[in-house]
Write a structure and sequence with these properties.
It holds the Pfam family HTH_1. It contains 10 helices and 11 strands. It is α/β, with parallel strands linked by helices.
């Protein structure tokens, strides 16, 4: 007789791989640490192999363990799609929805959208997870997220998506640094030595560089912001100039500052906000409905 791993055992395994800590993995799985450890030992006994090397300081997966984890992710995603089928068969947008949002969208868009969504879809249980684009796309592919609000263009693996709206990118500066600004800023007129950008991991950094339309653009890599709010404070204190999405400006990120903005004279000075999901998801029609609800809530 062939004994197959259980879904629970695979969940324990991928949780440990994600956290690299038995206690944190147990918390993520809502079990005790002893229960998780026992489940993993049972899995290794069942397979007759060692998947995880254990000592007091580090959790290390064997090469075979790494290979098993990758297959476990796919199996769990398929198992989750079975539950999605059942949810999709019921009333649309009346169940749980795990939504990922990137940091350059979440604080500026969600406060305006959520009240309208709650009013239109009162049965919707929306669980939000804010994460940078790369990890968020990985979480979507692994089935940890149902759908994702992100900014395009961005390489997010195999996804389907619904564009919501374009978000212009504007040049932001302190008036003392640019006392007689033109109506629009030509990218080749930007002093790259004074341009402040977000640190690596934020897709807005790539969008900002694309907006400059200069392949050789090399801003100062020694001064990078961890968030848009940090960049605003740097500009306010005349450390440099930056590029901001219109969404953040509309949400009041420049309130109580002297900072001014101008449009960029570039066809690439924008990003497209979109809702993305896995192509294999049986709830695709529900996500399209959700995308339409997001559009209507933003307009409203």
């Amino acid at each position: 007789m062939i004994y197959l791993p259980t879904i629970k055992q695979l969940q324990y395994l991928v949780a440990l791989h994600r956290t690299r800590h038995f206690g944190k993995a147990a918390e993520d799985c809502y079990v005790t640490q002893s229960t998780l450890s026992a489940g993993l030992r049972e899995l290794e006994t069942l397979l007759g192999v060692t998947l995880v090397e254990r000592n007091r300081r580090v959790v290390r997966f064997t090469p075979l363990g790494e290979a098993v984890v990758q297959r476990a992710w796919r199996l769990l995603a398929e198992a989750d799609s079975i539950a999605e089928l059942a949810r999709a068969a019921g009333q649309p947008l009346a169940s749980e929805l795990r939504l990922g949002v990137i940091p350059t969208i979440a604080p500026f868009l969600l406060p305006a959208l959520l009240p309208g969504l709650r009013a239109q879809w009162p049965e919707l249980k929306l669980y939000l997870r804010e994460e940078q684009s790369g990890p968020a796309c990985e979480a979507l592919g692994r089935g940890q997220l149902d759908c994702l609000l992100l900014a395009l263009p961005y390489s997010c693996g195999e996804i389907e998506y619904e564009p919501l709206f374009d978000d212009p990118i504007r040049f932001a500066f302190h008036p003392d640094d640019l006392p007689d600004p033109p109506a629009s800023i030509a990218p080749d007129g930007i002093d790259e030595a004074r341009l402040l950008l977000l640190e690596d991991g934020h897709c807005l950094k790539d969008h900002a560089l694309a907006a400059c339309s200069r392949a050789t653009f090399r801003p100062d890599q020694s001064v990078l912001g961890t968030s848009l709010h940090t960049l605003v404070q740097m500009v306010e204190n005349r450390i440099g100039m930056t590029l901001l999405p219109q969404m953040a400006i509309d949400a009041g990120i420049l309130s109580n500052t002297a900072i001014q903005t101008r449009p960029l004279a570039s066809p690439d000075a924008k990003r497209t906000i979109a809702l993305a999901w896995r192509p294999s998801s049986p709830r695709a029609e529900e996500y399209r409905l959700f995308a339409q609800a997001l559009k209507e809530a933003r307009v409203g």
